């Protein structure tokens, strides 16, 4: 990475430029989005709930991890699992299920069928222009897994004039990050490079060291005024200890001691794409993108440990999941005078060969007094002869999509869209020595209407379908109690179905006092069937079901108030209920609960919110301060609704001052040093003990950042 940053230092000296004379209306930019319609569109003309996190917010947050930024979105809770690992809750409980689509500049980070809930740990936080979050299904435009919503991370583009940024971050718990970025436009060619290198050593939680090195590069070639060629490449390397969760006694005593000193996650990710864009005229635009992915993931996961309460032995696993992708996506946008019609149509082909292997490791369980919880685990033997999963597959993803919007009458916009997806795979299962093919296909539809009767108010309504096929790691993993050392022939989840969802939604926006006060709201009702939910077994292993139904309903709201130039007040949150309406979990007469019908889903807080007050004093114009409040209400720890965790209220404060191009800042995270956990979970048995994903104690993040803008004509800053 040292070479990367030396290269970035050179960028700032390549040429000199002048800031453009024309200024951009920031408020106008905030009202423009791309994710909801695959083209630049006014936010009030898309019939969905979509939030945009601007570059100003990203720059002022100075986040060490992406969840600090995304959690500012109303209706969104990105759950920190440590070292930038995460799960998500958007119109769903906190879950690692494949119900979210993570995009980078509109292109999925991973192909369909190979979902990873940790995909955003690959993102370079120093290369973000904005983040757009669509809540609710967008499968009709982006395909499977876009059920709870889609998160689109939009990268920085080359600047017109030379720019260079360099910065450092550190906290008192051993975290350090170095980051640099730069770029310019010379003639017809613009380029931008951004990189970061972060490391964690000897933190408040034992066995939680990690390293992350990322670099993004982009080149824009403006062939002429109507034709562009854009190339991007990303490489990221991640290596982390996996501290896992801790037991209840250690949590409340603030004894942040990992139960393992061997669990890890290692990731290498390489993505590249080349896009050809053509503006045929003012009403016609086409693009064609060829892309590749190359991901290698290896882990000894703490969450994979299977232990039965009271036992002095346990089982874990080591697995590897490697895939490559070769694909192309084409899109055409066309506008017509008739009824002010806009049409988007396109198609996708993605070929992704994948290999996966998981084998057992034998563990010793060192028990705490009483024998009901584990103090630590030790590896006693690696057992590559006991295969939990071992398969090769070739995945072929094909899709066609189209969306049309038109104005039948003044101030009314109607949107209709549909997409057909086909995921087929040829596989070889090396455990049961079988081979074959499987196909998952689905047509998804959406319809919506926007009505903006006044300049200060607008309304929308929509119906949208979503679906998510089962992931390959679910299909080809041996069922609990079969395979390995059980003596029972391995059985697999060949009959898993795609989860399907129907979402009904209404919402709107209001603006008062010359747009100083703005309100957005949405009400949704969503039902899912054939949901792939995890049935936790007594030893912490997982049995999968895809024959159940669930109901999700809630209200999301956002209030932004700017009384003057010195204050900005933001409030946002959601109240929601997630319920099993028909979910059979057992046929055993001895099991006390056989169907979860009527139970609340676990890890589903009824209230979440994130609010912030920012102050920009006139008496010191380059100073900024803010106080942020994150609220998460209680949730059930298990599926049978016997025990709740109380949730948490947490306050964060940020202060920064800029002098010329130099900015210094301090972020105080968990300002009151509150003891809380991001997640608490336990099994369904009466004697099951909870485990806690502990949050960090009060943390001070210190940083310096230098931003250099050069004047090409006058050769001055």
UniProtKB/TrEMBL annotation:
Membrane topology: Multi-pass membrane protein
GO cellular component: cell outer membrane
Residue ranges annotated for the TonB-dependent receptor-like beta-barrel domain, each copy included: 214-671
GO terms, biological process: iron ion transport
Gene3D superfamilies: TonB-dependent receptor, beta-barrel domain, TonB-dependent receptor, plug domain
PROSITE patterns registered for this protein in UniProt: TONB_DEPENDENT_REC_3 (PS52016)
Predominant localisation class: membrane
Cited PANTHER family: FERRICHROME IRON RECEPTOR-RELATED (PTHR32552), TONB-DEPENDENT OUTER MEMBRANE RECEPTOR (PTHR32552:SF81)
Protein name per its UniProtKB record: Outer membrane receptor protein involved in Fe transport
Organism: Flavobacterium cauense R2A-7
């Amino acid at each position: 990475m040292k070479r990367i940053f030396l290269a970035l230092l050179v960028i700032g000296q390549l040429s000199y430029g002048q800031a453009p004379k024309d200024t951009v209306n920031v408020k106008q930019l905030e009202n423009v989005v791309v994710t909801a319609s695959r083209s630049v569109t006014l936010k009030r003309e898309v019939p969905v709930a979509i939030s945009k996190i601007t570059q100003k917010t990203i720059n002022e947050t100075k986040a060490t991890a992406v969840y600090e930024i995304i959690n500012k979105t109303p209706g969104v809770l990105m759950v920190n699992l440590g070292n930038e690992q995460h799960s998500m809750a958007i119109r769903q409980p906190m879950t690692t299920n494949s119900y979210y689509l993570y995009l980078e500049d509109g292109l999925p980070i991973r192909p369909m069928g190979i979902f990873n809930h940790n995909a955003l740990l690959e993102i370079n936080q120093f290369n973000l222009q904005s983040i757009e979050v669509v809540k609710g299904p967008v499968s009709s435009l982006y395909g499977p897994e876009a059920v709870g919503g889609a998160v689109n991370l939009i990268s920085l583009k080359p600047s017109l004039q030379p720019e260079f940024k360099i910065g450092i971050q550190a906290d008192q718990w051993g975290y350090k990050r170095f980051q640099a970025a730069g770029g310019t436009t010379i003639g017809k060619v613009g380029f931008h490079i951004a990189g970061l290198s972060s490391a964690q050593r000897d933190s408040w939680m034992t066995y939680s060291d990690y390293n992350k090195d990322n670099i993004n590069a982009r080149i824009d070639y403006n062939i002429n005024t109507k034709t562009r060629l854009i190339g991007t490449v990303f490489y990221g390397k991640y290596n982390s200890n996996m501290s896992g969760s801790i037991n209840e006694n250690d949590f409340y005593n603030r004894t942040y001691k990992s139960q393992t000193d061997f669990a890890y996650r290692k990731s290498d990710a390489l993505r590249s794409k080349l896009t050809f864009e053509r503006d045929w005229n003012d009403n016609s635009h086409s693009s064609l993108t060829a892309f590749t992915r190359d991901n290698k993931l290896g882990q000894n996961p703490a969450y994979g440990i299977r232990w039965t309460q009271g036992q002095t032995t346990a089982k874990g696993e080591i697995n590897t999941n490697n895939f490559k992708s070769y694909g192309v996506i084409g899109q055409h946008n066309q506008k017509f005078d008739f009824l002010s019609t806009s049409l988007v149509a396109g198609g996708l082909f993605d070929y992704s060969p994948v290999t996966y292997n998981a084998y057992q490791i034998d563990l010793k369980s060192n028990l705490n007094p009483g024998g009901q919880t584990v103090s630590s685990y030790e590896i006693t033997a690696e057992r590559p002869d006991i295969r939990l999963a071992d398969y090769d597959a070739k995945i072929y993803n094909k899709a066609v999509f189209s969306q049309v919007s038109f104005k039948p009458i003044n101030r009314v916009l109607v949107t209709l869209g549909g997409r057909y997806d086909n995921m087929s795979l040829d596989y070889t299962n090396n455990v049961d020595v079988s081979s074959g093919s499987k196909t998952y296909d689905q047509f998804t539809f959406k319809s919506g209407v926007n009505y903006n009767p006044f300049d200060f108010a607008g309304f929308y309504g929509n119906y949208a379908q979503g679906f998510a096929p089962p992931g390959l790691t679910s299909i080809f993993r041996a069922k609990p109690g079969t395979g390995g050392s059980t003596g029972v022939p391995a059985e697999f989840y060949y009959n898993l179905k795609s989860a399907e969802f129907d979402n009904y939604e209404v919402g709107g926006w209001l603006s008062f006092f010359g747009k100083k006060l703005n309100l957005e709201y949405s009400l949704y009702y969503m039902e899912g069937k054939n949901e792939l939910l995890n049935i936790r077994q007594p030893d912490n292993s997982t049995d999968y079901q895809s024959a159940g139904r669930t109901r999700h309903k809630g209200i999301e709201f956002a209030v932004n108030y700017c009384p003057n130039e010195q204050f900005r007040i933001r409030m946002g949150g959601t109240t929601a209920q997630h319920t099993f309406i028909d979910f059979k979990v057992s046929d055993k007469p001895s099991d006390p609960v056989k169907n979860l019908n009527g139970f609340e889903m676990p890890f589903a807080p009824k209230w979440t919110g994130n609010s912030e007050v920012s102050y920009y004093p006139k008496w010191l114009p380059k100073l900024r301060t803010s106080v942020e409040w994150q609220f998460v209400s209680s949730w059930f720890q298990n599926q049978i609704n016997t025990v709740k965790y109380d949730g948490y209220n947490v306050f964060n404060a940020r202060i920064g001052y800029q002098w010329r191009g130099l900015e210094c800042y301090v972020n105080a995270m968990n300002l009151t040093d509150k003891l809380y956990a991001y997640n608490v979970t336990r099994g369904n048995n009466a004697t099951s003990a909870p485990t806690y994903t502990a949050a960090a104690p009060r943390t001070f993040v210190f940083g310096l950042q230098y931003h250099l803008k050069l004047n090409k004509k006058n050769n001055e800053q």
